[in-house]
Fold each of these.
Amino acid sequence: MKIGELARLAGANVETIRFYERDGLLPVPARSDGNYRIYGDTHVQRLFFIRRCRSLDMTLDEIRVLLHFKESPQENCADVNRLLDRHIGHVAQRMQELQELERQLRDLRERCGEARDAAHCGILDGLSQAIVPGGKTASHVQGPNRHAANPNVEKEYKGNQN
């Protein structure tokens, strides 16, 4: 099948598929006489796997490690368990950050209980002075962060050493 068919089947963007190829997550497909990419069932299954991992907010490095283990079924999956445990920890941390963000937004919303002119809006006043946990004010408060891609994630799992 051609790239457009694969994209429709997997619910992916053509550019995303090309990116996964360039990044090494999808194997380079064969080419037709007209130089079109030709994908097979292996590509379909792998793209579904990648998309499922992405739907779980896994990084490309984490997916790369998981693909290594998927392709090496004889290896022990203890590192897969550790990777997922670590990812669960990132999700739990993100949930805490989002709960704190919600609390801050609700506190901010309570500053303006009724409609009035913007010059006297408690929300706008509150946004001018950020409130950090503990009631202190600061001119700049760092907001919640998604877990950043760890450039060493592949090295942390023994099964993916080259």
Amino acid sequence: MSPLSGTGANPLRDPADRRLPRIAGPSGLVIFGVTGDLSRKKLMPAVYDLANRGLLPPGFSLVGFAR
């Protein structure tokens, strides 16, 4: 079965799926090269958006390394 075959419904949008609202336990994210272009334009805005939507666990930590 190819990934494009089937009904085309997105399983992440299934309202009956009760797994999605769960939030993981305390976790962390380490970004190497945090002062770089990718981090500034993509990674940090994505982490901010997740935090703004309340999708990060309460014990979430972010660690950045740069040279």
Amino acid sequence: MADEDAGSEEKVAQTSSASADASPDGRSAPAVAEPSAADDPGSPTWALPRGTVVLLTIAGIVVAVLGIKSIGSIVGPVFLGLIMTVAVAPVPGWLRRKGWPKWTAFLATVLLVYGIILGLFGSVIYCIARLATILPQYSDKFNDLIDDVQQALSDHGIGQDKVNDMLSHVDAGKVFDVVGDVVSSTANAASALILVLTVLLFMAVDSINSDERFAVLKRVRPDVAHAFDTFASGTRNYLVVSTVFGLIVAVFDTGALWLMGIPLPLLWGLLSFITNYIPNIGFVLGVIPPAILALLDGGWMLALWVIVIYSVINFVIQSVIQPKFVGDSVGLTTTVTFLSLIFWAWVIGPLGALLAIPLTLLCKSLLLDIDPSTRWTDVLISSGRPTTDEVEEARRHNEQQARIREEAQQAHRAGDGGEDTVSS
């Protein structure tokens, strides 16, 4: 009796199951495929091996760099215009808060930027032109210097024939011809100046409504907005610090040259101020012209004193005093700064040396800081220690990524287990 009841219940259960699987019109319902681990959006899938992805990324970077290098004469002036626009971006807002009309604040900003650019280019051209006009006056002293070197080498046992062979190709006229070629190349600088001024005008027009655009960007892509803000603030800090301490260095250099009787001390002080914007080797470029004049005008000892005084002033002000007041305004290690100087000078020419730090800050902000998964690189390229907030943010990001990977692995294992059960 009990067996009959059990058999009846089993038949009823089978009938109910069949009814549930049947469609309203009596036909069997189609089978529904269960999602597999491959369909899980959380599971990490790679279309290519990671090594291949890395190689393709490196190849893409090389192609991009070579492309930029091929149009470096355009990229350099355009980026200079961008840097100047970023530098004076707070000026229109400050003028409008003072009660200036919008168009007046815009016009004043454009004139300010034009004045800075024209002053920068004009100062460089003036320094080169003055050096070219002064050096021919020392032609006789240059020949006397060559004779002194020849005599000193002969006194130290170097044969006269070898000395004559080494110095036969040294000609003061050729040296001054090179300076003349440098002066003639200012035509290229003039064309670049026109491009910079044109780009600045268009960028200034577009920046009128930049506040509204940036507010929208903050709402839509806060990470991108933060990257741009980091680049802008870092660039402005770098320019302010370089300007203030460049003026201090220029004043001391001018005074030292005046006391030593070097010709045109104001001119070389101006040159030291301009070259201060070039990191690491800027003071070396600034000391070469006055050292040459000191060598021709007063001999080896005076030239040595010029080099020593320039080096001491640069070291004390930029390596001892400046960090105590402002710290590291750039946020890059010395090695990264020097390598960026070489790299950007190779990519876009001499203007790249002047813009090396802002260009590196832009790449760092848009390629590294914008992505939480790549912010760990700041530990390697930043000069300062990471703050507590940065360490905490990195820890939270790593924990979140670990949870995502663990959940993906669990889902993948669960999917494999379900497939094994079905197949068995």
